[in-house]
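User: Before I run my own analysis I want an independent prediction to cross-check against. Here's the chain; please return only the structure tokens and, at the end, one sentence I can use as a sanity check.
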Amino acid sequence: MLDHQLIEGRRPSSSLPTHVRHIINNVIGPIMVVSRFIQLHCQREQLAELEDHQLADMGLSRAQVRNECAKWFWQA
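Assistant: Structure tokens:
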């Protein structure tokens, strides 16, 4: 049987030379970090836009939301 990665036109990662895997990881790693920062920023913006009754449904206070939204984009 064919490997599903080959069917989709991708080489299995284990067949890639080590130096190529390192290059890929060095490119994808920072992209993933920046993507997470953007995701956190967007989630905090959405949280700040919620009404008080919506926050209460989630068990959050407006003060907790202010504290969360005051964090820097890299802070989890």
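Sanity check: Residues 18-48 form the longest helix (31 residues).
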